[in-house]
Design a protein that fits this description.
Distance between the termini: 54 Å
Shape: elongated
Order of helices and strands: HHHHEEHHHEEEEHHHHEH
CATH superfamily of one domain: Elongation factor Ts, dimerisation domain
Number of helices: 12
CATH architecture of one domain: 2-Layer Sandwich
Helix content: 40-55%
CATH topology of one domain: Tetrahydropterin Synthase, Chain A
Strand content: 15-25%
Largest sheet: 4 strands, antiparallel
């Protein structure tokens, strides 16, 4: 049998878009002949993945899982929401989420991890593209971990257990009773799903974003024509309102309107006799930031009609 070099496998992979393991197998089956290997992959339907790679994949699933004091979120995209209901696709997303916990949210480590088929996650995804017939991507993964306390998760618009369109993790560090912490953690995760904060506390906001906001608010205040000292007071008030809109601890708690998340944390800390700190949170919304193609069906019909 001819020796299959890494360079040859790479060339075949670039030529066909098939997974690494499939390329190695194709070259082994064809004695290292590149064009014959291309035909072998085409016959197996595995090179079809390359043709689909340019399509926009903004649907799919967000997966969430927690193990011990670590939780992970993943986003696996497909072209249509129909695929999100495919059991094979769901099983893949669930498997990748579990692997993301072990990889501590490192995307490259997850892609290199091995699944039950013996393929890497990256190659399994290529195999799924060829099998299901849509472009798919493992877009991102993330993790939240606490030294002590709990990590709570929440999935909004759930398609299947642990899978949906919005996923949230929140880590609460405390020596308090885990059951009460878990209940509070889930409520805060639900709040984050709805309110989409930009930072846990004011100090965590992007300084440049704060300066831009200050400039806009100051300009609006000065447009009132009032003296500068009044303008500064107006600016302070508007900044407080801005923080209440985008900072988790300052936001009005959706589960207990009229009370901020920070005050709820303080009250619960007093109730359980131990401080509670939001150690971190993560929120993934399906397809956010992906540029979607807007289909013009009238134009398509007109084009087909000649």
């Amino acid at each position: 049998m001819a020796e299959i070099s890494a360079a040859l496998v790479k060339e075949l992979r670039e030529k066909t878009g098939a997974g690494m393991m499939d390329c190695k197998k194709a070259l082994a089956e064809t004695g290292g002949a590149l064009e014959a290997a291309v035909d072998w992959l085409r016959k197996k339907g595995l090179s079809a993945a390359a043709k689909k790679a340019g399509r926009v994949a903004s649907e799919g699933l967000i997966g969430a899982a927690v193990k011990g004091r670590t939780g992970a979120l993943v986003e696996v995209n497909a072209e249509t929401d129909f695929v999100a209901r495919n059991e094979t696709f769901q099983a893949f997303a669930r498997n990748v989420t579990e692997l993301a916990i072990e990889a501590a949210g490192d995307l490259e480590k997850v892609k290199a991890s091995t699944v039950a088929s013996g393929r890497t996650v990256a190659d399994e995804l290529t195999h799924l593209i060829a099998t299901i017939g849509e472009n798919m991507t493992l877009r991102r993964v993330g993790a939240v971990r606490v030294k002590q306390g709990i990590v709570a998760s929440y999935i909004h618009n759930q398609t299947a257990p642990g899978l949906g369109r919005i996923g949230v993790l929140v880590g609460l560090e405390s020596t308090g009773e885990p059951e009460k912490l878990s209940q509070l953690g889930r409520q805060i995760a639900m709040h984050i799903a709805a309110a989409n904060p930009q930072a846990t506390e004011v100090a965590g906001l992007d300084p440049q974003a704060v300066e831009r906001e200050k400039a806009v608010l100051a300009e609006q205040a000065r447009a009132s024509g009032k003296p500068e000292e009044i303008v500064q007071k107006m600016l302070e008030g508007r900044l407080r309102k801005f923080y209440q809109e985008v900072v988790l601890l300052e936001q009005d708690f959706v589960v207990e309107p009229g009370t901020s998340v920070g005050k709820v944390l303080a009250a619960t800390s007093k109730n359980i006799g131990a401080p509670i700190k939001v150690a971190g949170y993560l929120r993934f919304a399906l397809g956010e930031g992906v540029e979607k193609k807007q289909a013009d069906f009238a134009a398509e019909v007109a084009q087909l009609a000649g």
